[in-house]
Specification:
The complex is a heterotrimer of chains A (511), B (328) and C (332). Chain A has helices spanning 61-68, 91-96, 114-126, 133-147, 162-175, 192-207, 248-256, 310-317, 340-346, 355-359, 366-371, 386-399, 416-429, 446-461, 473-479, 502-510; strands spanning 23-32, 35-45, 50-54, 76-81, 84-86, 99-102, 180-184, 211-216, 228-233, 236-242, 274-283, 287-295, 299-304, 325-330, 333-334, 348-351, 379-380, 383-384, 434-438, 465-470, 482-487, 490-496. By secondary structure, chain A is of the alpha/beta class. Chain A folds into 3 domains: 21-98 and 180-187 and 211-257, 3-Layer(aba) Sandwich (Rossmann fold); 105-178, no CATH class; 275-347 and 432-510, Rossmann fold (3-Layer(aba) Sandwich), CATH 3.40.50. In chain A, strand 7, helix 6 (192-207) and strand 8 (211-216) form a beta-alpha-beta unit. In chain A, helix 3 (114-126) crosses helix 4. Helix content of chain B is 71%, strand content 3%. Chain C has a single domain (42-315), classed as ABC transporter involved in vitamin B12 uptake, BtuC, CATH 1.10.3470. Chain C has a two-stranded antiparallel sheet. In chain C, strands 2-3 form a two-stranded antiparallel ribbon. In chain C, helix 5 runs antiparallel to helix 15. The chains are: A alpha/beta (511), B mainly alpha (328), C mainly alpha (332). Chains in contact: A-B, A-C, B-C. Chains A and B meet through helix 2 and helix 3 of A and helix 8 and helix 9 of B.
């Protein structure tokens, strides 16, 4: 495998035509109150081309999208659409040039029909004051045909699965004569099969002359349809080259700027007693026949793609979902099913997948976010022992080295990594026996990520049983003693962490 | 076709049918044209209010100030006319009242659409403001000597007839106002970009902004339109009851919202139909006027409406909750 | 100085300034009457009944909900208490017997209030209804029950002891004022110093995260609405005692007023933020204002107008849009 080509020795990208590129940015710079979000970035994309724009959180990806979409003004540099330079951009100018952004949440209207969602922007731009339902349906039908998918025109968008919502969003862009579709984190919510069919559609669009820009921090899946990869780090372009030069490892290296070598976990004491025993856990249509044992001091990984039932299983273990049948025993005592309070009482903790909506009380103080799990313990008769409560919370913040200026500051003000530590602190304060971590390092920068992995290994060393649920294979390999592969709601494979590597695990997940 | 009980329209229609069947069983005279005209007549004001309230719910807000707007517009128009131009024809009178209502609606619109204040609290505030201003500065005496044209309007009948027992029944032309309002609102909601934008904004404000819908303008329109409808409802109410009472109407707002919510509009915005709303109005009017016919004393009116609201909104909520538990 | 300035930036700080300004303004406009002992005591008798309702609305608003049934609960409980006092005890009863019946009727009223709240809580927690709709519907039912058992007319003829609650004094402090002070302190204590209180604020800030943090959400909701119901019942008892009667439609303007006070007091209608001290300050500003206006021969209706204006003004001042507008001005 060849190394990625750095900016200094410009890669020879084959130019197929001589017409001006769809988008050409040179030396684009953006400052936000003293912080440089984009630093003299050059970027080009041609009709029919697919490009990966890769970078970590905070690398400047979203700033670049916003400038292209005309939402944010740039401080320096030039932007040209189809060879025409624009001194200033506006959403209108960008839209007229055919630059369309599909945000991660798709920005659809759940209460309106598929047809209307697809045709709304176009009608808004061309139809004047009156709404023409027939026109809407025709346009929607045409674009759906162009993409080659069949979604009922009169279905309400709220009833569609995520993959279909994404297609509706793509169709809406096409209905607006999109020439460049920018897709923000397009694959995070899709199952593997859905990613495959998305790629088929992208190929179709490319042959139609539409350019596609994928923006993500996890792009290995879409590399095969891309011509070019551009990597941003700290606002600057650090690598650019043909997609064939990159694989997921070299992409990570380029995004992070270092090889993150992590020590594998300490070997597990062979005499460690069983801690958590799950037998025949099932929930109809979600997961089935799940059985496993977690030993004391063990880190058990559950590897599964989206839609494999991994999150539902985790929620069921913590009582947020009531399984139809099966049994959970902790230290040989049955844990009541479907009741998070009693699961927590029994000693199970759960760090959810979506930190911002499920994990944190964003506007509440850091200390309160930790203390919320300990309120009943510090309830002395009628009154709360506030002193003890805050002392304990601060102690845990210190132990997990949460960097903060004031425990009374809202937790919103912390970085992703520190926020995740706050959620961890909340659970560790309760002295759990088993901790379930769902996507422990989603949206966390690389430095914090390896710190969080260190914390996981430390916890196991102290005798905690840890379950890590993730589709981040390096993460699973860096933390887990043993791995369960989950597919279609079932455990299909079990491997010792040291007996596998990323490629092998990837195969087992996909096969 | 399978009856979808989760849909409020179907549920409400069934309850209305059951109510009528019960009423007809206990009093055969219930199923008659006079009963119908009474119900229609009693539904005019509630109906116009409800159409406006539905529009606000669809846009994702809630308005409780429209009754105060109605009282304000109606009473101010009446006193102004009596002093300055008692002879104006009724269409002009109606227009003045609607313009006044729309102006008050502007105030709500600015506070909600421009300053983005929470709608329930804003309209609670403006309810006090409009009512307080009216009673302090315009007047607090009932006026029974209305301008002659208002009285004339109330005498315009679409049709009238005589019952077997010799009593009269009739349906005033004012009912046509409700029909016009419904048709106009239907047209706005389903045939104009503005109407579709109201649905879009109610579905997702953020998405609406991103695709270039003028959210502020859309919300502003909603509150102005509701104000105008309230002005219309107010002046019709005064004409029909042949009395301009500044204390009237305020207090109806919760019944109106009850009717709209029974008809399937959601507090979270984006959902609401005219059919559902009118069915909700019909049910509330039936309960308010004919409870006694099915053997329930009229002191149980408020309990009945309360139970209807709890069942009508609780059933879908419970189903949604169970569905979430099943699929999650 | 710095801390004083930073306090002024909180909603409560601004409200304290408003309360003082209103007091000073009214006192200077008609000092001999506004500051008279008679006026001050009459104010102390007037505001507790709706101030307690505002406390009831406040606790539900902290969870991001609302209780539109407070007036219904208040009247229903008062009507039952009144029936006990009028029919079981009877107007002629005096002495310790009357006090006993008064206490018993109070206990019954508060229990009914709590039960009504439990019903609301169950609708919100177990059925999953939005609080606005649940309490809108249940409020009609509670009012309806009061109408049904009284036939819509007022219940009167209590033992004289019953008047003490709303009109009595202890060491020349009006009983309603004492009652309000005790309840305000109790609610403040509950919100700030108990596990329940902290949980209810956290739940209001993010209900989903509360569930994921193993907070007993359902019990929490039941308790919040029960507390609200019990407070509403106490307010109903005050109204009953002051009016010397109970009726299904008393205090119907108090619903808007109590929501207004809660919001004026800085309670976030979306939940997660609010302080009892803010609510108390809001109550005081409202009472100073309306009583001062009374002195100035301003009608009741003008008071309603001024309340509304005040509410909207305070919301505008607290709103981010307006703050942003001013920030932009300053920059350019």
């Amino acid at each position: 495998m060849r190394p990625p080509i750095s900016v200094s020795d410009k890669a020879e990208i084959p130019v197929s035509d001589t017409s001006p590129p769809l988008v050409e940015m040179t030396g684009v710079t953006k400052n936000y109150s003293g912080i440089t979000a984009l630093d003299r970035v050059d970027f080009t994309i041609r009709a029919g081309e697919a490009v990966c724009l890769a970078g970590e959180n905070g690398s400047g990806k979203s700033t670049l999208i916003k400038i292209l979409a005309g939402v944010e003004p740039r401080n320096a540099g030039t932007v040209a659409f189809n060879g025409t330079r624009h001194e200033t951009l506006s959403p209108r100018i960008s839209a007229d040039a055919g630059v369309m952004v599909i945000f991660q949440d798709f920005s659809l209207f759940p209460n309106l029909t598929v047809a209307e969602n697809i045709a709304f922007s176009s009608q808004l731009a061309h139809s004047g004051a009156f709404y023409r339902g027939g026109l809407s349906r025709d346009l929607a039908k045409k674009t759906l045909e162009r993409v080659g998918v069949d979604i009922p025109l009169n279905a309400r968008v709220e009833q569609l699965p995520v993959a279909h919502k994404q297609l509706v969003a793509i169709c809406r862009a096409l209905a607006m004569d999109a020439r460049l579709i920018i897709m923000d984190e397009p694959t995070t919510a899709l199952t593997e099969r859905e990613v495959k069919s998305l790629l088929t559609i992208i190929r179709r669009l490319k042959s139609d002359g539409v350019a596609v820009l994928f923006v993500s921090h996890k792009l290995a899946e879409v590399l095969e349809v891309c011509e070019k990869v551009v990597v941003l780090r700290n606002g600057a372009k650090v690598a650019e080259g043909p997609a064939t030069d990159f694989d997921s490892a070299s992409l990570t290296r380029a995004m992070t700027g270092r090889d993150v070598a992590e020590t594998p976990p300490d070997p597990l004491d062979p005499s460690a007693p069983a801690l958590l025993e799950v037998t025949n856990l099932a929930k109809q249509g979600v997961f089935d026949d799940v059985s496993f044992t977690l030993r004391q001091g063990e880190v058990l990984g559950i590897a599964g793609l989206l839609g494999s039932g991994r999150t539902e299983l985790a929620k069921a273990l913590f009582g947020l979902i009531h399984p139809d049948k099966g049994e959970i025993r902790l230290k040989d005592r049955p844990v009541p099913l479907g009741d998070p309070l009693r699961a927590a009482d029994a000693g199970i903790g759960y760090v959810p997948e979506d930190r911002l909506t499920e994990g944190l009380f964003l506007d509440q103080s850091i200390a309160r976010n930790v203390a919320v799990g300990r309120l009943d313990t510090h309830d002395k008769g009628a009154m709360l022992d506030l002193k003890g409560l805050w002392a304990e919370a601060n102690d845990w913040l210190k132990r997990l080295t949460v960097k903060h200026s004031d425990p009374e500051a809202p937790v919103r003000s912390l970085s992703g990594g520190n926020q995740q530590r706050v959620v961890l602190a909340r659970w560790l304060a309760t002295g759990p026996k088993v901790l379930i971590l769902n996507g422990p390092s989603v949206g966390v920068d690389v430095g914090s990520k390896s710190d969080i992995h260190g914390i996981i290994r430390d916890l196991a060393r102290e005798g905690l049983g840890v379950i890590v649920i993730s589709d981040d294979l390096p993460e699973l390999l860096a933390t887990c003693h043993r791995l369960l592969v989950m597919k279609g709601g079932r455990i299909t494979d079990e491997i010792a962490g040291r007996d596998t590597d990323e490629t092998d695990l990837g195969h087992r997940l996909a096969s | 076709m399978k009856l979808n009980l989760a849909r409020n329209e179907v549920l409400v229609a069934l309850v209305i049918l059951a109510f009528c069947a019960l009423a007809a069983a206990s009093d055969p005279r219930f199923l008659s044209i006079p009963t119908l005209t009474d119900l229609l007549r009693n539904g005019i004001i509630l109906g116009i209010f409800s159409v406006g309230a539905m529009l606000v719910l669809v846009s994702g807000g809630i308005d409780v100030s429209f009754t105060a707007i109605a009282a304000f517009a109606m009473y101010t128009t009446t006193t102004f006319l009596l002093e300055h131009a008692p002879g104006l024809p009724w269409p002009v009178i109606f227009a003045i009242s609607m313009v006044l209502g729309a102006l008050l609606g502007c105030i709500n619109g600015v506070l909600i659409a421009v300053f983005r204040l929470p709608t329930l609290i804003v309209t609670l505030g403006t309810l006090s403001v409009f009512r307080g201003f009216l009673l302090t500065f315009v007047g607090s005496n009932m006026i029974s000597a209305l301008p002659p044209e208002m009285r004339n309007f109330s005498r315009l009948m679409m049709f009238r007839g005589t019952n077997a027992d010799g009593s009269f029944f009739s349906l005033p032309w004012a009912f046509a106002a409700l029909v016009i309002v419904v048709v106009l609102t239907w047209f706005i909601l389903h045939r104009t970009m503005l109407g579709r934008s109201i649905f879009a904004v109610g579905g997702s404000v953020e998405s609406a902004r991103r695709i270039g819908i003028k959210v502020t303008r859309t919300q502003f329109f909603v509150y102005v339109y509701v104000g105008a409808l309230a002005g219309l409802a107010g002046i019709i109410h005064a004409s029909l009851s042949r009395l301009a009472n500044p204390f009237d109407l305020v207090g109806l707002e919760l019944s109106v919202i009850a009717a709209v919510v029974l008809g399937g509009a959601r507090l979270t915005g984006g959902y609401g139909t005219l059919t559902g709303t009118l069915l909700g109005v019909a049910l509330i009017v039936l309960v308010q006027n004919s409870l006694i016919v099915i053997g329930v004393p009229s002191t149980f009116q408020s309990i009945t409406i309360g139970i209807l609201i709890l069942v009508g909104t609780g059933l879908p909520a419970w189903q949604a909750k169970r569905q979430a538990a099943r699929s999650a | 100085m710095n801390t004083l300035l930073s306090r002024l930036k909180t909603p409560e700080g601004r409200l304290a300034v408003i309360a003082v300004l209103v007091f000073v303004l009214m006192a200077s406009l008609s000092p001999e009457r506004f500051l008279s002992a008679a006026n001050l005591t009459s104010m102390a008798f007037q505001f507790p009944e709706f101030a307690i309702l505002a406390l009831a609305v406040t606790v539900t608003m902290l969870t991001g909900g609302i209780d539109l049934s407070v007036v219904g609960v208040s009247n229903m409980s008062a009507v039952v208490a009144a029936l006990i006092l009028a029919n079981v005890a009877g107007p002629e009863l005096a002495g310790s017997g009357a006090v006993m019946w008064l206490l018993l009727s109070m206990v019954v009223a508060i229990a009914i209030g709590a039960a009504a709240g439990l019903f609301n809580g169950a609708l919100v927690a177990f059925i999953g209804m939005p609080p606005i709709l649940a309490t809108l519907g249940s409020g009609l039912i509670f009012t309806g029950i009061a109408v049904a058992i009284t036939g819509g007319s007022a219940v009167m003829g209590f033992p004289t002891a019953a008047a003490w609650l709303g009109n009595g004094k202890v060491f020349s402090v009006p009983v309603p004022l004492i009652l309000f002070a005790v309840l305000a302190l109790a609610v403040a204590f509950i919100v700030r110093r108990t596990a329940f209180g902290l949980k209810l604020v956290m739940f209001g800030a993010n209900p989903l995260a509360a569930r994921f943090a193993a907070v007993d959400v359902n019990r929490l909701l039941l308790k919040v609405y029960m507390l609200s119901g019990a407070l509403a019942a106490i307010s109903g008892l005050l109204v009953m005692s002051r009016a010397n009667s109970a009726k299904a439609d008393y205090g119907s303007s108090y619903l808007l007023l109590s929501i207004l006070i809660a919001v004026l007091g800085g309670v976030n209608p979306y939940g997660g933020y609010g302080k009892v001290v803010g609510v108390v300050l809001a109550v005081l500003s409202m009472q100073f204002l309306s009583s001062g206006l009374n002195m100035l021969q301003v009608s009741n209706f003008a008071r309603e107008l001024i309340w509304g204006v005040l509410l909207i003004f305070v919301m505008l001042v607290n709103s981010q849009q307006v703050a942003a507008l001013f920030a932009r001005r300053r920059m350019s």
